[in-house]
Amino acid sequence: MQKLAKPLWQIAKTGGLLVFFCVNAIAQPFSPKREFRAVWIATVANIDWPSAKGLSSVQQQEEFINLLDFHRRNGMNALIVQVRPATDAFYFSALETWSEWLTGKQGTMPEPFYDPLQFMIEETHRRGMEFHAWINPYRAQFDNDSLKIHPDHITRRKPEWFITYGKMKLFNPGIPEVRQYITDVVADIVRRYDIDGIHFDDYFYPYPIQGQVFNDSLTYKQYGKGFTKIEDWRRDNVNKLIESISLQIKQIKPYVKFGISPFGVWRNRSQDVRGSPTQAGQTCYDHLYADVRLWLEKGWIDYVAPQVYFSIEFDKIPYKTLVDWWAENSFGRHVYIGQAAYKAIPQPNGDLAWAKPTQLPEQIRHNRSKNGKVQGSIFFSSRSLVSNPNGIADSLRENFYKYIALPPLMPWKAGTPPLPPTELEVLQSKKGALLRWSPPDQKTGLQRAVRYYAIYRAPANQALNLENPAHLIAVTGPENTFLDQNLPADGQYRYAVTALNRLYQESKAVFSPLVKLRTPGTWTDFVITLLNIYKKIAIEKKNPR
After folding, report:
1. Domain boundaries, the chain
2. What SS3 state is found at 130?
3. Is the distance from CB of 166 to CB of 111 less than 8 angstroms?
């Protein structure tokens, strides 16, 4: 809960209870039951995970679980993990080599062997969270160091597909075989792994480098028939890739989501009446050749996560102005705002507005004020939240994400909510309240659709309301038991359990009667333990051995 701007006695003096309730309502941020809350975990150059090249498999797994649990405690319900940072793999692949940022040497598998992607998906799902596989589509070599490149790397097998630009080697998006290869890589992941989403970042055609030319003129001459401008041809190349991948995902697993996180500005209004009232020096459309607005309009992507990495006070690209534009240009798809948690860490010559502890909280409040047209946030990046600049992780855990949220529904994704569980019972145990229930009848065939269960709880003096985020206390895996170790106090409680499918479509609930419960480790338990000890001593005195 946010602190009130004035102490209660001052509020009372300035207008009594009515004023108090009004101020309190303003002070408390709206916490929706459904909201996408995610964090990017970057693997390129070991930004977030693993912390260093060549860690043992056990160390890698321990680090990931620690990150996963940290973000879950802070209220996240999804992870977006970079599994293909530079045409390399954090998973077993017949198409691409193992990543150097995983094992220390490109092409070398983990030792002892495990499949990191499979491991991460299972651990994430076990905690009731979504896993989105983050892929950089066009980057092939991060620093163009040929000595590190494995002989089986695609740049060695198909050197004619690549263009060197700056320090990097990039796929040439104008070559049809390149588009097919990238589509095949995505299809392979979707087909073999139980992911919830495929996620692309902002790197399509490269960000302009002064004095450098992206030399694709010969490709344009070969494949650009029908285009009078190379810029339009480049945009068409990216459009074809996005459409192709969208179709592949829908054919293989239509429930898998496809999301893209572009640079924050599509186009300035000075360039296009449909653009945002901003003054960006570069844009998605004109410099990266990514027509994201078209992808939303065509329904090729399920969500957009624009990187609105600008402060509210930045005059050329004000945060609120840009968020409002995306909210009005989503064409019914979801908008998750990319939040620049890393900018809260002091940077030389940075925007001083980011030093204010209120910057990110005010941004989140603005997102939530858009009447459901902004459905969540993704934070860059994991390391920034772990370092907790300006207490942002604390603010999420104790305030904005204090209550659990389910990911928002996508009505265009087909699915049927599971049948409800049955026979819910609540038992007192030494460690808390133990819930047990029966899953939906397997004869219906809907048991396969149950992926998670949602647990609700309310004290006796409140009606249990499934739409009240304060009553949603946990989202668990498919197991049909749950141990509630966080009872706020001794007393009577009522529980409810619902079933969720992989799209988080929710069944009706099974309710428990009121149950009298004690919190684990309370004074009452201590007294009872002492009494039991005294009884045992008294019995032994009466009946000496």
Report:
1. 1-29, 36-400, 422-526
2. strand
3. no
Task: Report the C-alpha gap between 86 and 43 in whole angstroms.
Answer: 10
d(CA 259, CA 338): 12
What does pLDDT average to in each consecutive run of 10 residues of the chain (545 residues)?
Answer: 32 34 41 97 97 96 98 98 97 97 95 97 97 97 79 96 95 98 98 98 96 96 97 98 98 98 98 98 98 98 98 98 98 98 90 96 98 97 96 97 98 92 96 96 64 97 96 96 96 98 96 95 56 62 57
State which H helix or E strand residue 119 sits in: helix 116-126
Measure CA 527 to chain center.
45
464 Cβ neighbours under 8 A, 6+ residues apart: 456, 457, 458, 471, 494, 495, 496, 511
Rounded CA-CA distance 400/403 in Å is 8
- Looking at CATH, the fold of the domain delimited by 422-526 is given as Immunoglobulin-like (2.60.40)
The Cα–Cα gap between 471 and 463 comes to 10
**CA gap 140, 267 in Å, rounded:** 27
Instruction: Tell me 276's DSSP state.
Output: B
- CATH topology agreement for domains 36-400 and 422-526: no
CB environment 66-92: b (16+ within 10 A), e (fewer): ebbebbbebbbbbbbbbbbbbbbbbbb
- Give CA–CA dist 39/396, Å, rounded: 12
